[in-house]
């Protein structure tokens, strides 16, 4: 049998052996990444304005990272973490723990954000089993509506993403209840101050604890800046302090999901740094390895780790590929580059420019309901009516149309779409999350391109 050369493989889905996300639509065949561009097999170049789903953070084709991974694979491609560790895993976890100013005690590395969330859920349960005296009755979780925490069954159950849950609802654990997210644009009453809004949400959480029995809850789970599920929505000032107080009152842990908004995307390495709180457990992912290797993880504080150390001293959880050396090598090099090139300062500076220019260019657009975000993590939510904030009907596929036919086909700009209808009452949104080394002229071009009437008109014409 003669195999066709891989780079000449037809991309028509009907001929594909891949169980693609969609079985009949064709996919563009990606040949390589070059700096801030994606290059297709047919030579077309696309500017990557979102780093995939906020994954890419130092751009594509970085030789230093490639060489670090290559060297690691030659030296030690795999490590069975039952008996061994590697220097690269130790170094990466040390870097992560130190990056929290010692507030976190240990890091645990897996291969995807979903796995990190599964581990966080199990670690919080194990913490209560090993407390002295133990609290085995803590089996419940509280999270928020219109959230996404991953696609595996545990993570999906914690999340509130309606469309992604729907078909699997009977399989999902039932010990999770949901409260309202903190979304000033959608959730705050007219004339309500930020303080009143925060107090209302904190009360709702407190009531939910009382409702399910405060001693039954392991943890409250939330994303500091809601990414894919709502389109880069930061909480209003004081929210996280208030909800952490509620968690403390009831003895529950606070798990923050920083898979999408963390590792520098928000302008600080950890998004919680801007909230004046420290979670008990945090998860990280996408920008950890910047798309060079699949790597994600969790960090746990001294309270959690100290309790398990004194208890069984073993986290009852493990994966064949946890602490994968090549993944650690990639992440360590990506993080070194971010530090050496002072890219977090660029995230803040370019983030301010992006925010200002988006507001100037699009703030008055009749179908732009809200522009929000932090660092290089910005979302634009569209509305059919700016007075009533009514969303466009699902049949418009607005975000997808704007991204695919409006921006990618006409201008070669890649941003990340989110369908509001898939997740409750929100309008469609797009996410702009370029690499941390994006330049000001590129930011200007992204804004001009998104603001171009033809980009928007494609979606709005339907
Ligand atoms: N948590 C958040 C906030 C995410 O945005 C995602 C993925 O988009 C996940 C968890 C799951 O990560 P992964 O897709 O790597 O499993």
From TrEMBL:
Signal peptide per UniProt: none
Similarity annotation: Belongs to the EXO70 family.
GO cellular component: cytosol; exocyst
GO molecular function, one term: pyridoxal phosphate binding
Record protein name field: Exocyst complex protein exo70
Tagged with keyword Cytoplasm: no
Keyword vocabulary terms for this entry: Pyridoxal phosphate, Transport
Transmembrane segments: none
Organism: Podospora australis
Any one of the GO BP annotations: exocytosis
Top-rank taxon, per record: Eukaryota
């Amino acid at each position: 049998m003669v195999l066709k050369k891989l780079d000449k493989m037809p991309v028509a889905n009907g001929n594909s052996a891949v169980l693609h996300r969609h079985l009949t639509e064709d996919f563009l065949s990606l040949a390589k990444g070059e700096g801030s561009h994606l290059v297709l097999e047919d030579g077309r170049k696309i500017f990557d304005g979102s780093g995939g789903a906020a994954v890419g953070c130092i751009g594509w084709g970085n030789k230093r990272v490639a060489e670090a991974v290559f060297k690691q694979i030659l030296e030690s491609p795999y490590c069975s973490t039952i008996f061994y560790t590697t220097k690269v895993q130790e170094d990466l976890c040390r870097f992560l723990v130190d990056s929290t100013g010692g507030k976190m005690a240990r890091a645990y590395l897996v291969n995807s954000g979903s796995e990190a969330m599964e581990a966080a859920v199990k670690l919080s349960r194990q913490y209560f089993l090993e407390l002295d005296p133990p609290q085995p009755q803590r089996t419940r979780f509280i999270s928020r509506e219109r959230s996404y925490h991953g696609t595996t069954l545990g993570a999906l159950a914690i999340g509130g993403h309606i469309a992604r849950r729907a078909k699997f609802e009977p399989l999902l654990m039932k010990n999770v209840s949901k409260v309202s997210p903190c979304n000033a644009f959608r959730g705050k009453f007219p004339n309500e101050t930020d303080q009143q809004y925060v107090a209302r949400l904190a009360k709702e959480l407190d009531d939910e604890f009382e409702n399910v029995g405060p001693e039954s809850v392991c943890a409250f789970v939330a994303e500091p800046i809601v990414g894919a599920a709502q389109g880069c929505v930061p909480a209003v000032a004081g929210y996280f302090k208030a909800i952490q107080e509620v968690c403390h009152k009831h003895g529950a842990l606070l798990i923050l999901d920083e898979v999408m908004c963390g590792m520098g995307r928000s302008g600080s390495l950890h998004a919680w740094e801007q909230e004046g709180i420290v979670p008990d457990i945090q998860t990280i992912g996408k920008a950890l390895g910047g798309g060079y290797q699949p790597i994600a993880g969790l960090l746990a504080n001294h309270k959690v780790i100290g309790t398990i150390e004194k208890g069984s001293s073993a986290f009852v959880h493990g994966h064949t590929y946890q602490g994968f050396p090549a993944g650690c090598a990639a992440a360590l090099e990506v993080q070194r580059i971010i530090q050496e090139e002072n890219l977090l300062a660029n995230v803040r500076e370019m983030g301010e420019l992006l925010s200002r220019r988006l507001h100037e260019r699009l703030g008055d657009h009749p179908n732009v309901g809200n522009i929000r975000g932090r660092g290089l993590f910005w979302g634009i939510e569209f509305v059919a009516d700016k007075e009533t904030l009514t969303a466009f009907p699902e049949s418009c596929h607005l975000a997808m149309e704007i991204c695919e036919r409006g921006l990618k086909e006409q201008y070669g700009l890649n941003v990340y779409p989110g369908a509001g209808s898939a997740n409750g009452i929100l309008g469609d949104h797009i996410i702009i999350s370029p690499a941390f080394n994006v330049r000001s002229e590129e930011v200007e071009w992204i804004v001009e391109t998104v603001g171009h009437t033809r980009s928007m008109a494609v979606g709005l014409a339907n």
